[in-house]
TrEMBL record:
GO CC terms of this entry: membrane
Name of the molecule in the record: Cation/H+ exchanger transmembrane domain-containing protein
Cellular compartments annotated: Membrane
Keywords, alphabetical: Membrane, Transmembrane, Transmembrane helix
Keyword NAD: no
Similarity field: Belongs to the monovalent cation:proton antiporter 1 (CPA1) transporter (TC 2.A.36) family.
Top-level taxonomy: Eukaryota, Metazoa, Chordata, Craniata, Vertebrata
Main localization, broad class: membrane
Underlying gene: si:dkey-162b23.4
Length: 498
């Protein structure tokens, strides 16, 4: 009894949880259909409206006209919201047994519509400096993601077939585009190569989801085709971006041809050196014993990436910023080991914010009233010819890789969609030309941007459909789960040397 009474006394002595008191009901007669004060869903809605109103009031009191119709802040906000809605709507379009359409198409089209509807255009205005800055930030985020996403093990162990697929079609399409655009569109050689490297990159945003869907159903898994294409995609993009930044530096340099070529090589070397130094620094700082290490590392990667892209242009070496970002992100991830995945997640959040802005702003750069019919026609012709050469050369690259005819045809067709890299770098040359106030260079830059947008609109949806339709027809499914499990180690050894 004494023990029991002691336990009761201890329970009584412990503080009991205090439940918050509800405010009194002001009007009991109307509470059943209109509670006052409101609760539940109605209270949540009122709270969100109040928060939005307070936020708008604070921003308006600071920026004044910038957040009203016709201001840059208002235009960016409306563009972002519309791009997100457009992406969601396009992602809802689903056909049976086919990969979903990439949301970036909806974002691109929303930006295009906002720019070309006269009533909307007057209210949704974005200064080209704002637009260029936001797109360059998005480019920095893309480059940081690409650098972090590189697998050092795969880099060391990739077999020749993956190297051929990653580098060969990109370089061949670039050279073909440069040759054709020089004679058809009248672009100078260096601008032809700029356009070629813009078009030479394949889009992981289209290829990877499609490959994952085929891999889930078992198509081509025994032969390693989804793994091959997903592994080669990152290296293809990095090669295209590196070539683009090098040609960009040459195009805007002044002096003799040999001097410009030497300058381009020096920019590449400078970007590599700066990336190596910065990458090693953020490997060790912040140290692992600090708090919030992941957020600090993420901030440093993103901050240094943005600084490299903008700072290289300010310093007069625009070709070095992109390469510096790729190298520093890769080396930093190499030193972080398994912790790199958490930083990649944070960088992915940044991309979720800037992706709608990037594609919306790219779409908003195209004005129908300023397009020239012959430029569009010749641009499409140049792109299609180069794309045909790319498909044929991709088929040649996998001739001795152990695939049958159908599998070779599928790899060649799947290696054509374009989207993310084209949006990221397609307008960079135009932005630089605008800073030079050179009308001829601006025309070349607009031609590059126009063809890049056309490439996205034509190849992204068509490529997704081709992969979804041709995959089940051209690729083989494993005969049984047992044989599939038996083949998987051989597949890894074939592709990655594991």
């Amino acid at each position: 009894p004494g023990l029991h009474s002691a336990q009761v006394a201890m329970e009584d002595a412990q503080p009991k949880p205090v439940t918050p008191e509800r405010p009194p009901i002001l009007f009991p007669e109307t509470h059943w259909f209109c509670p006052c004060p409101p609760r539940g869903l109605l209270a949540s809605l009122v709270t969100k409206v109040l928060l939005a109103a307070v936020l708008f009031g604070v921003v308006w009191s600071i920026t004044e006209d910038e957040c009203l119709p016709g201001g840059n802040l208002f235009g960016v906000t409306i563009l972002f919201i519309c791009a997100v809605i457009g992406g969601k709507l396009v992602s809802l379009i689903r056909l049976p047994r086919l990969p979903p359409f990439p949301p970036l198409l909806g974002m691109l089209l929303m930006g295009f519509l906002l720019r070309n509807i006269p009533v909307v255009t007057r209210g949704v205005y974005i200064n080209y400096r704002w637009s260029a800055s936001l797109r360059n930030i998005a480019l920095a985020v893309i480059l940081a993601r690409a650098g972090l996403g590189l697998d050092p093990t795969a880099l060391r162990k990739l077999k020749s077939v993956c190297v051929r697929v990653a580098a060969g079609p990109c370089l061949v399409e670039t050279c073909t585009t440069a040759l054709i655009s020089h004679f058809l569109m009248g672009l100078p050689w260096v601008w032809g190569f700029i356009l070629g490297f813009v078009l030479g990159a394949v889009s992981p945003a289209v290829v990877v989801p499609s490959m994952l869907l085929l891999q889930k159903d078992g198509y081509g898994v025994e032969q390693g085709i989804p793994t091959l294409l997903m592994a080669a995609g990152s290296f293809d993009d990095i090669l295209a971006i590196t070539g683009f930044t090098t040609c960009l530096g040459v195009a805007f340099a002044t002096g003799s041809t040999w001097y410009n070529l030497l300058r381009g090589a020096l920019e590449v070397a400078g970007g590599l050196l700066a990336g190596v130094l910065l990458g090693f620094v953020i490997q060790y700082f912040p140290s692992v014993d600090q708090k919030h290490v992941v957020m600090k590392r993420s901030f440093l990667v993103l901050g240094l990436s943005v600084f490299a892209v903008f700072g290289s242009s300010v310093a007069g070496f625009p070709g070095s910023g992109g390469l510096c970002t790729l190298v520093l992100a890769f080396l930093a991830g190499l030193g972080w080991g398994t912790e790199k995945a958490r930083v990649e997640e944070v960088v992915g959040w940044a991309w979720d914010v800037f992706q709608p802005l990037l594609f919306g702003l790219i779409g908003a750069e195209i004005r129908v009233s300023e397009l020239e019919g012959h430029t569009v026609g010749l641009g499409i012709a140049s792109m299609l010819i180069a794309l045909l050469v790319r498909v044929l050369f991709t088929y040649i690259c996998v001739l001795c890789a152990g695939f049958n005819v159908k599998e070779k045809a599928f790899i060649a067709l799947a290696w054509m969609p374009k989207a993310t890299v084209q949006a990221a770098i397609g307008s960079t040359a135009l932005d630089m030309a605008r800073t030079k106030n050179d009308l001829q260079l601006q025309k070349y830059g607009m031609d590059v941007l126009t063809v890049a947008v056309l490439a996205i609109l034509l190849t992204a949806p068509v490529g997704a459909l081709i992969i979804g339709l041709a995959g089940p027809q051209l690729l083989q499914k494993p005969k049984s789960s047992v044989s599939s499990e038996r083949v998987k180690p051989t597949l890894s050894a074939f592709l990655l040397g594991m």
